[in-house]
């Protein structure tokens, strides 16, 4: 297992990983992703975030497969953190998060968590920073980590 900077050649695997977890962030797992969200999860969209700057992107590999992905929208907004369902609960998200924290000079972070992931972020020290929000069948909780 290893963490490394995401490469352009990883975008298909990252897109598949994130889309495979849609049932965790959709209010109704039987529904389709709204178009605006689906467009941000395409291989092309991940390639743009990896190639054009403004984001830090890392993958967690295990036996040559990408099983985790984290993206920080610079300077301090946690944009994505996903771990393959079969590897959840093994500390991969914490390992990725700690890696990002060590890679930047900020100690204040924001994010919009899926409802499913709120307990994970609370374990990292995040707290709710605003009311629960929802858009097109996706609920989210604004959160922040303040020293």
The quaternary state of the protein chains shown equals single chain
CA-CA gap between termini = 30 Å
Shape: globular
From N to C, what is the helix and strand string? EHHHHEEEHEHEEE
Helical/strand content category: alpha+beta
- Average residue-wise pLDDT: 96
Q: Fraction of residues in helices?
A: 25-40%
| Count of DSSP-assigned helices | 6
Task: Report on the biggest sheet.
Answer: 8 strands, mixed
* Strand segment count: 8
Poorly predicted ranges (pLDDT <50, ≥5 residues)?
A: none
Strand composition percent: 25-35%
Gyration radius from CA atoms, angstroms: 14 Å
Q: What is the element layout, followed by pairings?
A:
Elements lengths: L1 E4 L5 H10 L1 H4 L9 H6 L2 H9 L3 E8 L2 E9 L3 E7 L8 H12 L5 E6 L3 H6 L3 E2 L4 E3 L2 E8 L2
Parallel strand pairs: 4-5
Antiparallel strand pairs: 1-2, 2-3, 3-4, 5-8, 6-8, 7-8
Helix pairs in contact: 1-4
Question: Describe it for me?
Answer:
This protein has 147 residues and is α+β, with helices and mostly antiparallel strands. The protein is built from 6 helices and 8 strands; from the N terminus they run βααααβββαβαβββ. The chain has helices at 11-20, 22-25, 35-40, 43-51, 92-103, 118-123; strands spanning 2-5, 55-62, 65-73, 77-83, 109-114, 127-128, 133-135, 138-145. Strand 7 (133-135) and strand 8 (138-145) form a beta hairpin. Helix 1 packs across helix 4 (43-51). It starts with a strand and ends with a strand. The model has no long low-confidence stretch (mean pLDDT 96).
């Amino acid at each position: 297992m290893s963490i490394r900077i995401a490469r352009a050649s990883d975008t298909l695997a990252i897109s598949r990983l994130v889309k495979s977890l849609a049932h965790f962030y959709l209010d109704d797992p039987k529904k389709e992703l709204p178009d605006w969200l689906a467009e941000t999860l395409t291989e092309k969209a991940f390639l743009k975030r990896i190639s054009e700057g403004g984001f830090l992107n890392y993958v967690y590999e295990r036996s040559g497969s990408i099983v985790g992905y984290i993206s920080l929208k610079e300077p301090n907004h946690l944009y994505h953190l996903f771990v393959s369902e079969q590897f959840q609960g093994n500390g991969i998200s914490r390992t990725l998060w700690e890696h990002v924290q060590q890679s930047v000079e900020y100690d204040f972070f924001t994010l919009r968590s899926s409802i499913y992931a709120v307990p994970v972020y609370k374990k990292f020290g995040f707290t709710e920073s605003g009311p629960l929000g929802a858009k097109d069948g996706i609920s989210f909780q604004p959160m922040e980590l303040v020293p």
